[in-house]
Q: What sequence folds into this?
């Protein structure tokens, strides 16, 4: 089969056949207009999904915090019968943080993440020196100590907003509180232990609180920088991109947080393709299983834009020169079907020039996904070095589709329900279409649909950040929308900083 379009391109054309998201026939072309400021894809993160993100962020925050070195602490204290003792703590390092309890809470202001009952382990070097009137020389000693901080409480509140089409993350509140500290010295006199507790308990606690709070603020700033650097368009192939501009502020409720993005297909580095404008379009996600972590709702306008883009770019056309029954591509195979064709062009090879005469139309209901595809099929005869068009048959193909989630892609397949045909024009006289119909059925079943399904099975990407994978996904069709309700798993292939840099660098190079 000779293709006049790239393999990735045909996928999105065939999405129009079975991808299942093209406008209803009742919508008129007069309503086409740019939709750059409207949302056609929405993502809702449930409380369970929020808890998953919270646990992941805490895990990554802990791994980025430790080891954390605290400033040197010096202090002079008076100890009975000893006198003034100069004490110094140096190389104080937090090397372990254990989080036993945490929760995330949604509110009008934003998302609050609370860690309670955590423990923190530190190591340090200690040094002291003193002199007394009894011993006029300086006495000093040094050693190591281990410190355990108990009852560590950490809380932060994050504000979410839309800033010129990107997600803005702001730190509204952040704090850390140390409840109790225990210190174990390696060596040293008993009076030193009590002196160490009296002298440094408050300073160590304050240093831990300040250091962790500072690290958290730096981490939130880096995360916001990452979000601001995310591209507003994601390349699909050489011709198309997905517009992932955020529309409106995030929607916060007591059980979920929702995001709306434009989601339409656009030409690479060009103006958005005209899409279907629908008044009061709603892309909210309603997953029957509230335990699912995330829900993704795709309005049919997303796929309308893909269909319009590739159709307007004249990509919906290809030449068929190989079929399972190759005799169908020689006039001898048509001698009893269209005798005048064989008589005029005896034993000449043929090709089928297939093109869509309009963007495919698909109607999505709760039970069915029905597609209607208008196809012009031109029969070409290869005579010497010349391609001679001899007839054009118009086909109206009615098909039904099935969708599934494959990894982070929405994939599908299509099957034939029925089709009708009419003769559009002919240079060889009238054709007995009832004789031609079995041939067309064979072409559709053995060429058109298998070719379509070979690309549809690959699918197209859902708006999921690199490093995360949908898991146990369910698909729900409901009145012109497809909803994907799924859990999410995180692939431990990169740490969070590597994940952010990979994402940003990848799309910076592509654009």
A:
């Amino acid at each position: 089969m000779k293709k006049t379009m790239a393999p990735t391109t045909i996928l999105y054309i065939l999405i129009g056949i079975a991808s299942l998201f093209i406008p209803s026939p009742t919508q008129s072309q007069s309503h086409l207009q740019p939709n750059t400021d409207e949302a056609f894809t929405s993502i809702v993160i449930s409380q369970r999904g929020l808890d998953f993100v919270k646990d992941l962020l805490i895990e990554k925050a802990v791994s980025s915090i430790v080891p954390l070195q605290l400033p040197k602490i010096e202090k002079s204290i008076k100890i009975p019968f000893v006198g003034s003792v100069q004490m110094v703590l140096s190389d104080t390092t937090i090397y372990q943080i254990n989080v036993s309890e945490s929760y995330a809470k949604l509110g009008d202001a934003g998302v609050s993440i609370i860690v309670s009952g955590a423990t923190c382990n530190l190591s340090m070097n200690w040094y002291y020196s003193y002199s007394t009137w009894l011993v006029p020389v300086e006495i000093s000693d040094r050693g190591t100590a281990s410190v355990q901080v108990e009852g560590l409480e950490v809380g932060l509140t994050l504000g979410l907003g839309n800033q010129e089409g990107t997600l803005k993350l702001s730190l509204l509140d952040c704090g850390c509180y140390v409840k109790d500290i225990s210190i174990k010295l390696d060596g040293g006199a008993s009076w030193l232990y009590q002196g160490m507790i009296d002298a440094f308990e408050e300073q160590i606690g304050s240093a831990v609180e300040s250091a962790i709070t500072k690290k958290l603020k730096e981490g939130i700033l880096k995360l916001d920088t990452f979000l601001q650097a995310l591209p507003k368009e994601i390349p699909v192939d050489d011709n198309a991109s997905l517009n992932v501009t955020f529309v409106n502020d995030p929607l916060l409720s007591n059980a979920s947080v929702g995001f709306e993005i434009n989601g339409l297909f656009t030409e690479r580095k060009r103006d958005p393709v005209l899409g279907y404008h629908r008044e009061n379009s709603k892309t909210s996600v309603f997953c029957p299983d509230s335990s699912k972590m995330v829900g993704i709702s795709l309005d049919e306008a997303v796929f309308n834009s893909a269909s319009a883009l590739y159709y307007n770019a004249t990509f919906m056309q290809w030449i068929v020169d190989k079929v399972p029954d190759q005799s169908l591509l020689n006039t001898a195979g048509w001698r009893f079907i269209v005798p005048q064709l064989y008589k005029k062009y005896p034993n000449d090879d043929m090709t089928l020039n297939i093109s869509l005469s309009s963007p495919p139309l698909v109607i999505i209901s709760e039970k069915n996904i029905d597609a209607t595809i208008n196809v012009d099929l031109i029969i070409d005869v290869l005579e010497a070095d010349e391609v001679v068009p001899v007839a054009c048959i118009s086909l109206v193909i009615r098909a039904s589709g099935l969708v599934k989630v494959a990894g982070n892609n929405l994939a599908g397949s299509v099957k034939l329900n029925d089709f009708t045909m009419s003769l559009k024009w002919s240079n060889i006289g009238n054709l007995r279409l009832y004789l031609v119909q079995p041939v067309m059925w064979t072409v559709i079943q053995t060429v058109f649909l298998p070719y379509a399904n070979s690309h549809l099975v690959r699918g197209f990407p859902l708006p999921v950040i690199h490093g995360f994978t949908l898991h146990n996904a369910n698909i729900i069709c409901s009145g012109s929308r497809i909803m994907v309700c799924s859990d999410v798993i995180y692939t431990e292939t990169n740490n969070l900083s590597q994940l952010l840099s990979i994402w940003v660098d990848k799309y910076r190079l592509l654009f």
About this structure: Residues 49-229 form a domain with the Bactericidal permeability-increasing protein; domain 1 fold (CATH 3.15.10.10). The chain has two domains: 2-40+231-505, 49-229.
